[in-house]
Amino acid sequence: MTDSERFDWRTLLTPGVLQTSAAEPEVRRARTIVPRTSWRPRTISTAGHPPSTGGLVPESAVVEKDAAAKCRAYLAAAQKEFSFEDRRRDLALFTRDFYRKRLQVRASRSLREVFDALADPDTLLIEMAHDGQLPHLGIVRLVLKSHSIARQDPDALALYLVGNHYTAAMRPENLRFGVPLKGGSPDDVKHPPRIRLGKAQAHVPFRLLGPPSAHSLFALRDQVTDFVENNLSHEAKRGHRTLPDARERIFGRLDEVFRMLVLAASEVASFGDWLIRAQYDLFHRMMGQEADRIVFLPMADVTSLLRPELTTVAARAKEVSAIKAEVAKEQLSAGIEPYTRSAREPPLWAYCLACYRRTRVPWQPGNALEMVCPFCATHVVLAAEEAWKWVMPDIIGYEAALFRLGIAGWVVGSHAPYHPVVERTYARLFGAEMPPKFFLTSVPVFRGIGDPRDGYGRTRLLRALLEMDPPAVAKGPRGTLGGRPEAPVRPARLLRSPVRKKPISCDALQRSMTDSSDFERPRTWSELVRFLKKAAEAFIGRSHQWVAGETMEDALRVAKESNGRGMEAIINHLGERFLDRDRVEATTREYRRLLDAMQAHGIRGAISVKPTQFGLLIDKGYTLSQLLPVLEAAKAQDRVFWLDMERVGTTDDTIWLCERLLETHDKVGICLQANLKRTPGDVERLTRAGARIRLVKGAYTEPPEVAYATREEIDRAYLSNLDLLFRRGRDFAVASHDTRMIDRALDLARDHPPPFDFEMLRGVRDPLHGELVGKGQRVAEYISYGPKWLPYFGRRLRDRPRHMLTMARAFVTR
Predict the structure, then answer these.
(1) Are the C-beta atoms of 458 and 466 separated by less than 8 Å?
(2) pTM of the predicted model as reported, rounded to 2 decimal places
(3) Other CB atoms closer than 10 Å to residue 381's CB: what's the count?
């Protein structure tokens, strides 16, 4: 971006930050009037006092109206050149399914009318595309400008395409919360608050990662809280005045933001979808129902609608390369750094199925895709149809193909060197003029609590929402097309935050509740969480199911009970996704103490650990160094050492750990999830290596590219893998509470009687455990303990809601 437009947000709060007046209006819920005949020109939103209808029309509105007229003229001309009626219908169906099935957004009447409008080839679509990220105000400005242009036409929508194919390594700054520290730039903070994915997942596309855990989001909230406290102290030392309740206001908003982020993470299946859902929720907080006119879409998945165009791009790859070389030569002669200096590169990227890194490939759609990953040397072969799921065009091919959906305008934030390449590629391959571009290159500069004296030009939206009400944030960063700075919109007064009895706090989610007083009706988010946790503790205390307790002594007591009923105990200390080495090393010490205690108490059984609890998200080599002392202790007692399996992004590293541990101890087991499509290959590989395998259905919801989704598919996969284990395996574990799976295992054992166990969660269908022991079967109970039982429950119920029914049934039949 160019032309820095300095926008001092403190001017909105003069004379100090978070100042107010006695006459300021309350924030009111937006009202929307939607007649059946047409939703578009009659949407009216109000916040506080209604806007005045008098006065001069702002220059920006005139420019936006002219832009909308250009888009309308372009669309009319494009309709004469090629037909896209069917493509629009496909786009509408795709968007409806994406919102309903993946974003978990309920389709209101307004949204249903948006879907209908998408299917109409006469609807203007104003596009803005950008990286997968927690957006900064420059991105927010571009989206708002696309929406502003769309509002100038009675039949228009804004398309916001989010790059869910991006990775944390491609844009590390995109996952930062963006909080400054004591007058320094957020860019200079040594350990900035951010969503942490770890080195093992740095190159995995966001669409293939699971959403952030509630634990990681709460850890981020705690870090942001520390930064805010330091910044408030810093402002006080500098003599800047704030309202007496500034701290409470900021933390109230902080809790609202994180409540929204946690809810979004609980309802979607991938990190990419979480980034989109979070932005969907944020824009609706800022704009109300008017944000329905912004259509949020995943860039990678939209390629499923563009296969004919991408086939053309791939078939004419040499022409595309010639265009790149031609434009690069012109740009270099003009002193401009070109989009690429390697013009002969193919226009398509393919992702490695092992390490998930991408490389350009000369693939022709309709043929099998074969490549050797230059990063991990994996030989990848994919059938023609399967290859589409792992291929992504570069920006040239993507935009040229996207325009064929009838895009009428393109809002961009810079004069990027790839723009002329897109323009010529579209003209040469499809014989058409590309849609008009609208530049918005000025950058809003935010100056809030703790910011540098001159403000900061890439302030994240989440950070801005801590100090301004959402409608004010939406009003502030709108700019003028062409990059000419416009006078900032200055609200007359700061809108009040919703009145609460006391500020919301999520702190209780990180602490165990010990108060046994009578429950009171919760009035705030924090009180509700405490209420639910206390209720759960009481419930667990009465039923003694599912979790042994919070201490090692609880686990040993329950394990001895299991031994007394003829079953072995597999003990697990709860915890996962640790990013702090101190916590990892404390876990190592805990497991060594646990093994010593099991030996002292004569407990028959094994231990089972989660690799991310031992630092897998930090570094797999470090994880191995922490696991080895525990493994040696287990080996000395001749116990099995089990590795639990977690989300698909950690599968390869977990298998690597298993193979390394087998070099030290021959009694190492690993959990494999039947819902993953890769599992049959992993069964073959690991049985050859001598590993014991625990087969489970899978507790995590994963992207459809790598996992089965329906219950029927997962059951078929489980039975197939079970047959494979009985043919190839030894000392494996059938880990299911499903009677059909258990009966099938008993049937197979008659013909193929290798030694195997049934492993079941303690507290789930306990009578069945005893029945199997009575039939002479080996049974082991999986026993968990530790203070982190609430995230454990939350994950199991979030990822597989039917576990609630299983647990409820277990409680009734106990």
Answers:
(1) no
(2) 0.58
(3) 11
